[in-house]
Structures are given as C-alpha cells and as structure tokens.
C-alpha cells in the first residue's frame, strides 16, 4: 500500500511539473546520421535557440537516419503528430523527395513547414574558357540545339540539381524539357571537374561546392539562383537579373507536426525568426558558406506549396513520376 501511495504521489508531482512546462525540453530530429546538412541544422539552430534564451532548456538532438528522411517523416506523421515540442530538420531535398513520392505515398501537406533561415544558393557554372559568357548565352544555345549542352550535377536524375536548369529553361519558355541532357555524378566536386575537363558544357549545383574553383579561376559562374546577390560574391549576377525568374536554393529549415495548433506553429516561427536575427546565426552562416534566406511561418508554407507543385510538374515532364 505504501509503495502504491509513493508511486501515485510521484506521478502527481511529475504531472504538476509538466503542467508548468518550464522543464519540457524541445527535441530536434535530424533525419540522418551525425554530420551533414540536417544534423548541422538541428545542432546549430538548437544551440542558438538555447543561447539566446528562446527556449528554457537545451534542445535535444535525435539522429534518425533512414529512407533519405522518410523514416523521420513517417515517425512524425504517424506517432508524434500532436507534439508541440518537436521540430525536424529539412531542406530542399525533403520537398523534392516528397514531390516525387520517394517516401512511399507520404505528401508534403502531412506536416507544416515552419521556416528556413539560410540557404546554399543554386548555381549554373561553366569552365573559365567556355564560350558562354552569360546565362542567356547558354539558354540560347540550348534552344538552338538541345543536344549541344550537357549539364553535370551531384544529384541523380530528377534530383534537385537536375531541376535547376530545367526551371531556368521553363522560365525561358522552352518546353521540350526531356531533351535537356543531364549527367548525375557522385557529388558537386565531380560535377565541376567534369565541366572543367570539357566532358560536359555546364555544371548545376550549390555555391558551397564551387567556392574553391571560383577562387582558383577555373570556372565562371553564369548565375546564382537567389533573390539577391550573395554576400562575398557580389560580382555574380542572379538568374532573375538576367530575365529568368527562378529562385532555387538548398534551404536549411524545419518542419513541425501538422496536428499542433496555429498558436504553437506561430510560436516556433517566432523562435526561428529570433535565431535568424541573431549574431550567432550570422556567424554560423558565414562559417558554413550559407547565404541569407529567411522565410518563416505562413509565408514559408505558401512558398513550399508552390515549390512542391512546380517539382511535381517538372518531374512528370521528365518521366521521374507518372
């Protein structure tokens, strides 16, 4: 009887503490093993959230590798749909895979995308001695003869790198998307090497993959796919400046369970905005080659909806999905 009484009393104390909420620690799931982009997102954002006192306790990071992010997504949807203390690292790869049904029937609207606060800018690159001086030159050559230009990229066919030049060509009014030649290789460095060596005419990838090649003078960046020019690389024009309305960045951000309330969703958006505004995050971006890219709350969710719809359309056109 005494033991049962103590258990009841202890349980009651825990309930009381939980109701106050001051000791509940947030958890960030990184849908991959330690190291890499999703792990970086959880650990950096989690640390800064606590450092700037946006949360009351250190954020717990849980690595949940599997199915390219699919295991974590399924866990959130099926087991933790109402957890207000859960955030999950996400990136452009997340939405691309959801759009292409890579998560076994899961769809992007099964969670809520709360925000992105940094991005690895998409780029289109040619060798330094290439005849293409501008993005327009490259587009004109493809329009005249699609077989004359092959792109190398670090993702598989249908992946995010493949999508970047397709978006540019679509923005230029080119409709024969399947005729665009794309060669997927093992990472951005290999893609740049293919282009410098003349095996392909252009490379599609992210800014972080080409910085060393830019500094060595081996490549020419025809365009960066951001809304504004990238700090530190102000001499590189955006695609938009050149008449192609395309923003393609490998954003770093978070999603949350769909079942949480609007108030809880907005609270996470506010916290993420505080991280974006902090000196600590600006230092982390500089140290890791990220460009400013801040969209939080409802604005980000609306943007994601558009990105997913566009990815579905392009993926169908090139035959990645039916």
Task: Describe, in short, the structure shown.
With 322 residues, this protein is of the alpha/beta class. It is 43% helix and 19% strand. It has eleven helices and ten strands.
Tell me about this structure.
This protein is α/β, with parallel strands linked by helices and 322 residues long. It has 2 domains: 2-119 and 249-317, Bordetella uptake gene, domain 1 (D-Maltodextrin-Binding Protein, domain 2, 3-Layer(aba) Sandwich), CATH 3.40.190.150; 121-242, Periplasmic binding protein-like II (D-Maltodextrin-Binding Protein, domain 2), CATH 3.40.190. Helices cover 43% and strands 19% of the residues. The chain is built from 11 helices and 10 strands. The chain has helices spanning 2-20, 37-51, 70-79, 92-99, 135-144, 160-171, 188-196, 207-215, 262-277, 279-287, 298-317, and strands at 27-30, 60-63, 86-91, 111-127, 150-153, 181-184, 202-206, 219-224, 249-257, 295-296. Strands 1, 2, 3, 4, 5, 6, 7, 8, 9 and 10 form a 10-stranded mixed β-sheet that branches. The longest helix has 20 residues, at 298-317.
């Amino acid at each position: 009887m005494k033991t049962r009484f103590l258990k009841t009393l202890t349980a009651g104390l825990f309930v009381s503490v939980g109701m106050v909420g001051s000791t509940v620690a947030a958890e960030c799931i990184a849908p991959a093993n330690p190291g890499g982009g999703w792990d970086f997102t959880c650990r950096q954002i989690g640390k800064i959230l606590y450092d700037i006192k946006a949360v009351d306790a250190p954020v717990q990071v849980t690595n949940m590798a599997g199915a390219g992010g699919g295991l974590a997504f399924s866990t959130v949807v099926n087991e933790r749909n109402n957890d207000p203390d859960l955030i999950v690292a996400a990136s452009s790869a997340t939405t691309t895979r959801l759009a292409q049904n890579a998560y076994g029937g899961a769809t992007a609207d099964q969670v809520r995308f709360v925000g992105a606060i940094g991005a690895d800018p998409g780029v289109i690159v040619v060798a330094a001695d290439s005849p293409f001086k501008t993005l327009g030159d490259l587009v004109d050559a493809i329009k005249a003869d699609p077989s004359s230009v092959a792109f190398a990229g670090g993702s598989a066919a249908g992946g995010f790198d493949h999508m970047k030049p397709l978006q540019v060509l679509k923005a230029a009014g080119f409709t024969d998307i399947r005729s665009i030649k794309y060669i997927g290789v093992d990472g951005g460095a290999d893609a740049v090497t293919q282009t410098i060596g003349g095996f392909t005419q252009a490379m599609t990838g992210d800014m972080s993959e080409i910085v060393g090649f830019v500094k060595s003078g081996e490549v020419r960046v025809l365009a960066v796919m951001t809304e504004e020019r990238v700090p530190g690389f102000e001499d590189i024009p955006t695609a938009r400046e050149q008449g192609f309305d395309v923003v393609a960045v490998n954003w770093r951000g978070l999603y949350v369970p769909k079942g949480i309330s609007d108030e809880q969703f907005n609270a996470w958006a506010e916290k993420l905005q505080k991280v974006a505004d902090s000196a600590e995050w600006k230092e982390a971006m500089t140290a890791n080659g990220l460009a400013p890219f801040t969209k939080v709350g409802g604005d980000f969710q609306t943007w994601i909806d558009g990105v997913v719809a566009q990815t579905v359309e392009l993926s169908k056109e090139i035959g990645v999905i039916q």
